[in-house]
Design goal:
Largest interface: A-B, 32 and 32 residues
Distance between the termini of chain A: 13 Å
Oligomer: homodimer
CATH topology of the largest domain in chain A: Enterococcus faecalis V583 fold
Strand order of the largest sheet of chain A: 5-4-1-6
Number of strands of chain A: 15
CATH superfamily of the largest domain in chain A: Enterococcus faecalis V583 domain
Largest sheet of chain A: 4 strands, antiparallel
Strand content of chain A: 15-25%
Shape of chain A: globular
């Protein structure tokens, strides 16, 4: 069998495995370190490929300094910065701990995390709970408002949702995401319908398990943050699907794509855990009043796990309303999705796009096609201020740099040619 | 000023008045006869233009016989039919009592009704609460399952929602409908997002006003019927908007379009309460397993009030996923909406269609344009079995017959030429 055929077959296997994943929200763990592999009290995880403290972008440094205060390891933000720079804290990237996080993606030992499990193969993934809009840790915020909310999430939100999730005996996230694509979401930057569908599932169980004033408090937090709440369920769901395609010999599909605000990196199925990186790009965005591209941090976050499985920027045709948030026109949203069929291995059986007559979403980024066609994967994303403590300043569109795909393909060629 | 200019100006006034309407759900009245004008214990209202008992279609006769049992005026369904035929019951059409109802549209003195008020001008509209899918009165069902559910709605659902609505001091339905068009609804046959948005608004107030087991029971009923629950809020909302365009001298816009399963009729702003009717059409539909067009009742219900204000069939481009329910393709859904711009007076400022780059929905059916272009208004709709007691058998697409527009235009010409 020639090598091209071997690759095609391996990619088919990958698509089939991805398609079979059944990501279920099975629990909320109140302390991440109890479940995330190889995490101790001094481990802080972040988005994107691995990076040293010194090279981290402003918002990630700020979020880490802030979370060290939350963790009780620093008395204030200045001490947080000092401790982070001291070498005492072990930094590592989420993806290498079965975890994902939006924007700075900071995940600390005592934050609560969603626990998703693939009922097909027992694999797990983890993600913190979404803080909502405004000043938030994931965009580099670290003031009292941010820390107060994180404490409320730990003390009230997460325990209540945990009871409800346990009472529900798990919630099927794939069916929520798939339905939300028929309701105007693309499940990366637009998650409104997905959040309402999650509320549909969780609310009766909240009513059964917590007192009514807590149930109401939680319900209101979810509704007020419906635009974005479901992202932190969509992402670990996508992570489980992408992870099913890992470590398949000859498979040329991307299994992770993530940014840390300094670098963007990909991992490829046949190439194990090696990261192929390029400098993170600037985002072509719509900015909130008072901000411009000069203020922007480069592309940031693990949320491009969405694009890896064919939703997010790859399914923008499902979500014409998103252009009012990330820019562009509805017809461009359709043509963007259409272009992504050129660089992907197949069409999703699960995620379908109504405006394209229910065509399956373009799934499985093939590094060979990206290089051959010079067609980069498209990303839509939020934009953080480049300095810590400010937060989100807009949202927009970008594409993954081609260089890292060239590097990955070179490595792939070395292994198999 | 020539007459053409007078008509154009009148139609502009109508669009402006429609645009200013603020339909708020202000109350749920537990007994319709307490609020619906000119309704007494022996009045039964129905959908469409006025019609005598003898000419009514099977499902409407069955729904009336059934509701007479519900009302305690008949001991069983046979007695219901006898009483209905006896001449003792006064039948009239919903529209002439500030009311609308889907399919058979039967509205009886002791059913609970939504009360909507236009905060702009104090006008009110009424609609029963939606029963959900399956065997239901609005599709001609009348057995114990149907009557039990109606009693549960009267005893549990309506009182609970009433308390919540009163506690909320009203719920803005226009903002729900407008948002739902950005979430894949067209708010006539697809109401899923609208129902979730309504649940977002009502649930915290339910938690504040009723015991938790009732709140849960109501929440589950709403979620199980989310596909359709919001229709009975969308319709009286649309009625208030359309009513704002009534009785404007020289205005050639349709202010009501409704079917009773035998006839379809329109009312025109400048022509008062006169109905111009044609035989109701058959629907080109997707049928549930075991049923075909031979089983179908002709087009039925007041729900075309949606199309009168530019949503429903006129905004199918907002709702590509609906084609899996009513038939056609996503691209046809777009071209249908585009054709409706040809026969309407303007674009909605409130209802916008993301996939058409947020173009306003085609609003205000101008009888002159319909006749001149031979272009009938498009309708999407549910399909009832032609015999009573069976219920919904499908959903599909049809268009309003041109004849009644010719008749209306003749009458318009007589008045003004």
């Amino acid at each position: 069998m020639n090598i091209k055929k071997k690759i095609e077959q391996a990619n088919e296997v990958a698509l089939e495995r991805m398609s079979n994943v059944q990501p279920i929200l099975v629990d909320i763990e109140l302390e991440a370190m109890n479940v995330i592999p190889a995490m101790d009290k001094k481990t802080i995880l972040h988005a994107g490929p691995p990076i040293d403290w010194g090279r981290m972008c402003g918002p990630t440094q700020g979020a880490i300094a802030g979370i060290l205060v939350y963790e009780g390891l620093a008395a204030n933000i200045e001490e947080g910065y000092e401790l982070a720079a001291s070498g005492e804290i072990k930094f590592d990237c989420n993806h290498d701990h079965d975890t994902v996080g939006p924007m700075t993606g900071v995940t600390s030992p005592h934050q609560p995390v969603f626990v998703l499990e693939d009922r097909e193969n027992g694999r797990k993934s983890y993600c913190t709970l979404n803080e909502g809009r405004g000043k938030v840790l994931r965009f580099g915020g670290w003031d009292f408002e941010v820390l107060d909310r994180l404490n409320w999430m730990k003390d009230i939100l997460a325990p209540a949702l945990k009871k409800a999730v346990n009472h529900a005996k798990g919630i099927d996230i794939k069916s929520i995401i798939s339905e939300s694509l028929h309701m105007g979401d693309e499940a990366h930057n637009r998650n409104r319908s997905g959040s309402y569908l999650f509320m549909r599932e969780i609310t009766p169980h909240l009513m059964d398990t917590v007192d009514v004033s807590t149930a109401k408090e939680v319900f209101l937090f979810l509704t007020q943050n419906a635009d974005i709440f479901n992202l932190n369920l969509s992402m670990p769901h996508s992570k489980l699907i992408a992870d099913a395609a890992r470590d398949i010999d000859y498979c040329s599909l991307v299994v992770a794509m993530a940014r840390n605000g300094t670098d963007i990196g990909i991992q490829v199925s046949a190439l194990g855990r090696e990261w192929f990186t390029s400098p993170a790009t600037m985002v072509d965005g719509l900015y909130f009043p008072g901000f411009s591209e000069e203020d922007a941090c480069p592309d940031l976050g693990d949320s491009t796990i969405s694009e890896v499985i064919g939703i997010g920027g790859f399914s923008m045709a499902s979500s014409p309303a998103i252009v009012s948030f990330v820019g562009g026109s509805a017809s461009e949203a359709v043509s963007r999705t259409e272009r992504m069929y050129e660089i992907t291995a197949g069409k999703s059986k699960t995620f379908t796009i109504p405006s394209l007559n229910f065509r399956g979403a373009p799934t499985g980024i093939d590094i060979r096609k990206v290089v051959e066609l010079n067609e980069p994967p498209l990303i839509n994303t939020g934009i953080a201020h480049k300095e810590a403590g400010i937060g989100q300043i807009g949202a927009g569109l970008t594409s993954a740099p081609l260089e890292m795909f060239h590097e990955a393909l070179k490595s792939f060629g070395k292994k198999y040619l």
